[in-house]
Specification:
Elements: H1 12-21, H2 27-46, H3 59-71, H4 82-101, H5 129-136, H6 144-159, H7 163-167, E1 183-188, E2 194-199, H8 201-211, H9 237-250, H10 259-272, H11 277-284, H12 289-292, H13 296-310
Antiparallel strand pairs: 1-2
C-alpha cells in the first residue's frame, strides 16, 4: 500500500508505534502524543478535511490550526496556555518528522515555528532542605503503611527516580539489604535506557524497616495495602502521586509538590553543593546535558542574591 495515499489521521497509529519501536519513548509519552494529535484530528474533521493526504497539508493549514489553538476555550472557559499550545505543535511537528523519515512526502517539520513565549525555559520548582525534612518526617511510622510511605519519600529524594521508575522497583533488587550500608542498582529508565541508581544509607534504612514488615511473596517493592487483587498489588504511579500530595499537605509544604518536585530538589541540592553538572546528568538519566542545564538557572539566581547581599558596595565611602 502506498503510504503517501493514506490520509494523515490514518497515519497516527503507525506514528505511535514508531515512537515506541524506533525512538524508544515511554508509554506515557506515547499517550501524551496520542492526546495532542487527537485535537489535530478533530480539527481536520471539523474543517471537512479528514481525507487530507500528507502532501496536501499546507503552511496555510498549519497557520489556521495555530489560530485555532490560540483561540480555543476549554471546558473551564479558559484559553490554552502558550506552553500547552506548544505541546500540540511539537506533536504535529514530530508527525511531520516521521513522514520525512518514512519518505512520505509532506511539508518539512521546521515549517512549524514554536511561539517565542513557549520556548522560554521552564521554571524549576523545588523544596528547601527544611521543607524536605518536614515532608520526609510527615508519615506516622507506627504501621507498615506509614513505613512504606516514609520509604517512598526517602527514596524519591535520595535517588531522584522518576515516579514510574520508583513504581517499577522490585523486592528482589533489595534482597541483600541486610548486609550493606549503601546500594546501587540498574534500572531501565525513560526511553528504555539503562542507568545506575544510588541509594543513600538513610533511604536504605527506611526501606529495610519497611521490608521487615513484609512476609508476603509479592514482587513489587511498594505495594498497595488497600488493593483487593491477589495477583498484583504494586502501587500505581497515580497512587504514589496521591501519597506525596497527602503528605505535602500534612507537612505544610508548597502545593505544587509532586514526586518530580523531589527529583528537582535532589538535583538542585547536589548542584548547590558543587557537584558537576555532568555527574548530575548521570544521576538523573538525562540523555542530553541541555536538559540538566535548566537547574543552573536556580543556582544562578542564588548566586545573584548572594552577590547583591554581600557585595553591593553599600559600605564604600564614595
Amino acid at each position: 500500500m502506498n503510504q503517501s495515499n493514506t490520509p494523515i489521521i490514518n497515519h497516527i497509529s503507525d506514528f505511535l508505534d514508531y515512537l515506541e519501536v524506533e525512538r524508544g519513548l515511554s508509554n506515557n509519552t506515547q499517550i501524551n502524543y496520542a492526546r495532542y494529535l487527537k485535537k489535530f484530528s478533530l480539527w481536520i474533521k471539523m474543517k471537512n478535511k479528514e481525507n487530507l493526504l500528507p502532501h496536501e497539508l499546507t503552511t496555510d493549514d498549519i497557520w489556521n490550526y495555530r489560530l485555532y489553538l490560540a483561540r480555543y476555550i476549554d471546558r473551564k472557559n479558559k484559553p490554552l496556555s502558550k506552553q500547552t499550545q506548544n505541546y500540540y505543535l511539537i506533536a504535529l511537528r514530530s508527525l511531520l518528522s516521521y513522514f520525512s523519515d518514512k519518505d512520505i512526502q509532506s511539508i518539512p517539520a521546521d515549517k512549524i515555528k514554536l511561539p517565542k513565549d513557549a520556548q522560554k525555559e521552564k521554571s524549576i520548582k523545588f523544596l528547601t532542605l527544611d521543607q524536605i525534612e518536614r515532608l520526609l518526617t510527615a508519615p506516622t511510622i507506627s504501621d507498615a503503611q506509614g513505613l512504606r510511605d516514609r520509604a517512598i519519600l526517602e527514596t524519591l529524594f535520595s535517588t531522584g527516580l522518576r515516579v514510574a521508575e520508583l513504581a517499577a522497583l522490585n523486592v528482589e533488587q533489595f534482597k541483600n539489604l541486610k548486609n550493606i550500608n549503601d546500594l546501587e542498582i540498574t534500572i531501565i529508565g525513560k526511553g528504555n535506557h539503562p542507568r545506575t541508581v544510588y541509594f543513600s544509607e538513610r533511604a536504605l534504612s527506611w526501606i529495610k524497616k519497611y521490608l521487615d514488615t513484609r512476609d508476603d511473596d509479592y514482587k513489587a517493592l511498594f505495594i498497595n495495602y488497600r488493593s483487593r487483587k491477589d495477583s498484583d498489588k504494586r502501587l500505581t504511579v497515580r497512587s504514589i502521586e496521591r501519597i506525596v500530595k497527602h503528605y505535602s499537605t500534612l507537612a505544610n509544604v508548597p502545593f505544587f509538590t509532586t514526586p518530580h518536585t523531589l527529583r528537582h530538589s535532589m538535583a538542585t541540592d547536589l548542584l548547590n553543593q558543587g557537584v558537576d553538572l555532568r555527574i548530575i546528568q548521570e544521576f538523573l538519566g538525562h540523555k542530553n546535558i541541555s536538559t540538566t542545564q535548566v537547574y543552573t538557572h536556580v543556582t544562578n539566581k542564588k548566586l545573584k542574591d548572594v552577590h547583591r547581599k554581600y557585595h553591593s558596595g553599600k559600605d564604600l565611602k564614595n
